[in-house]
Write a structure and sequence with these properties.
Number of helices: 27
Structural class: mainly alpha
Oligomer: single chain
Radius of gyration: 26 Å
Strand order of the largest sheet: 7-6-5-8-10-9
Largest sheet: 6 strands, mixed
Helix content: 55-70%
């Protein structure tokens, strides 16, 4: 087997003007953005509440079948593969069912991406490039949000990035063991988010192999090398068992998971239709937001003279690693902001190379970037101060009204951008790192807003009242489960859903008889016989009052988004 050797770049770090970023700084930045205040805000409704509750039920079930076919609110939930649930349930088992334990896996996945970027850059002999890329990745606005939210995509990002990096070394170095590692991580990525991982891997790999081929025969030969029995066996050994056991456990699983969740979702024909569509350019502005404020450095560096060039195979690989997934997501009928995080580790690496090869834009380029950011924050501060928002009037953040806090915070960001402009212009050794205080301040703002907005973003306040004042009553939700999905996590038990129009409970209710989803007539009987507390979204109260059972119920507590009625 050929021994692994570092892949040479056209010009090493020592020969170019580069930032001297110490390794300890990279990891401190990573720990701050992935871990600071991880449990300081409530479990968020909708996606985070769903996945936290599935993991909690999995751990508490005592039934091995729920580790194969997950359950949500006591009903079958087959929409996603189980790796995230397994890991989160393990986190709950070790650390308890807390907010920070729920978000531990995405945070560790983000830090794993940092480690992967550093490892990848070390093998390419672009150590400082990798350190800059790691800092930009983990502190980018969108990545920061995904690093501290319980969802599948950050785990997918770490596993898919590892698979693609090993694939690059396999193609360039012809190192056989690299393919086994690549397929192993790909199998785990499939268990993390489904066969979309395989589609993205094939799209990136096929495009990259094409650039390394001068003839059709060479291209086909390049693809054939991926048909390695040992590597394929590794993939199947990891990915296949769960799919087989799940198909045997739940008869409809094979059709539901392979066809409804993958093929029909991509075509926009999945039932139920619980996802968003968008224009072909949907993801382009979101690319800028995900790596904000670092993506704005492109403005200054765009006109700078290129003094160094990365190797052509590396540039092709990094380009395809984000372009092909973006094209795939753009062509799909199902679009979501969080899909985009999967491309960010290698996109940030290419951004770092692009900046380094252009001397980070030079003094005037960095200064131009800072001036643009200063103007942007100043305009936002002016807008917030002159456009009062009703929802902000009742919030207090660090002892002041929320609107005033946001206004001061944005003016602070404006001042920090001005300071960064001056530092990056005058102090060459600091350079673009002068902009690091901007995402740190943004994180501070985000955490404080989330901490005080639980009534809008979570049902934790409602759950506290229900446990204290209505513990003896049956707890119910009116029609929509997703908008109050964190309630079951905080109550530590499933709740009844009346006249459900929930997309996430649709198939669980349809496939098996249950006593979780109640009809109007069933609730009419219960209201007359048992004490009941029902939580209704405020927007649905007019509809709720038209129901026959509502005549026997009275409003006892109202929150920002929902209210509690009892009989």
């Amino acid at each position: 087997m050929q021994q692994s050797q570092p892949i040479p770049s056209q010009q090493s770090d020592q020969d170019a003007t580069v930032l001297c970023i110490p390794l300890w700084l990279v990891w401190i930045v990573g720990l701050i953005f992935a871990g600071a205040g991880l449990g300081s805000y409530a479990i968020l409704d909708n996606n985070e509440g769903l996945y936290a509750e599935i993991s909690r039920e999995m751990l508490q079930s005592g039934d091995w079948r729920q580790w194969v076919i997950p359950h949500l609110n006591g009903l079958v939930y087959m929409e996603k593969p189980p790796l995230l649930y397994w890991l989160t349930a393990l986190s709950f088992g070790i650390f308890g069912e807390s907010e920070w334990a729920a978000r531990l896996i995405p945070a560790l996945s983000s830090l794993s991406c940092v480690g992967l970027i550093l490892w990848f850059g070390g093998r390419l002999q672009r150590v400082q490039t990798a350190r800059l890329a790691a800092v930009m990745f983990v502190s980018g606005l969108g990545v920061t949000a995904m690093s501290r939210t319980l969802m599948f995509d950050m785990l997918l990002t770490a596993l898919l990035s590892a698979s693609l990096m090993w694939m690059y070394f396999f193609v360039v170095l012809k190192e056989r063991r690299a393919l086994c590692y690549s397929y192993a991580f790909l199998a785990l990525a499939v268990l993390a988010k489904g066969f979309v991982a395989g589609v993205l891997f094939c799209a990136v790999t096929g495009s990259f192999v094409l650039t390394q081929s001068s003839t059709i025969r060479q291209f086909l030969s390049g693809l054939w090398q991926f048909w390695d029995k040992k590597a394929i066996s590794v993939f199947l050994l990891i990915a296949l068992p769960w799919h087989i056991v799940a198909s045997l456990t739940e008869p409809i699983f094979a059709w539901f998971y392979f066809i409804n969740e993958h093929v029909l979702r991509f075509l926009g024909k999945r039932e139920p239709h619980d996802y968003y569509a968008g224009a072909w350019w949907y993801y382009l502005p979101r690319m800028v937001i995900y790596l904000f404020p670092w993506s704005f450095l492109l403005l200054g560096a765009f006109f700078a003279k290129r003094v160094n060039r990365a190797s052509r195979p590396l540039q092709w690989f990094l380009s395809f690693a984000w372009i092909m997934p973006v094209l795939f997501f753009s062509s799909s009928s199902a679009k979501a902001n969080y899909y985009l995080v999967a491309v960010m580790p290698l996109a940030s690496f290419q951004l770092a190379i692009w900046l380094e090869d252009r001397q980070y834009g030079g003094r005037w380029g960095r200064m131009f970037t800072g001036l643009v950011l200063s103007a942007l924050f100043a305009v936002l501060a002016w807008f917030v101060s002159t456009h009062p928002q009703e929802k902000l009037q009742s919030l207090q953040i660090v002892g002041m009204e929320a609107q005033l806090f946001l206004c001061y915070a944005l003016w602070c960001l404006t001042a920090l951008a001005v300071m960064a402009t001056l530092l990056s212009w005058r102090m060459q050794k600091i350079g673009v790192l002068a902009y690091l205080p901007l995402p740190i301040m943004t994180l501070f703002i985000l955490l404080n807003v989330l901490h005080v907005s639980a009534e809008w973003s979570s049902t934790r306040p409602i759950a506290d009242v229900l446990k204290q004042e209505h513990a003896a009553q049956k707890i119910m939700l009116f029609q929509v489960f997703e908008d109050q999905s964190s309630l079951t996590f905080y109550l530590k038990k499933p709740v009844y859903v009346v006249e459900s129009r929930s997309n996430d409970l649709f198939w669980g209710d349809k496939l098996h008889n249950n006593d979780i989803v109640l009809s109007a007539s069933e609730l009419d009987v219960l209201v007359a016989a048992e004490p009941i507390a029902i939580v209704v979204m405020n927007r649905d109260i007019p509809l709720f009052r038209t129901k026959s059972y509502a005549a026997s119920m009275k409003l006892v507590r109202q929150f920002a988004n929902a209210s509690i009625f009892v009989n």
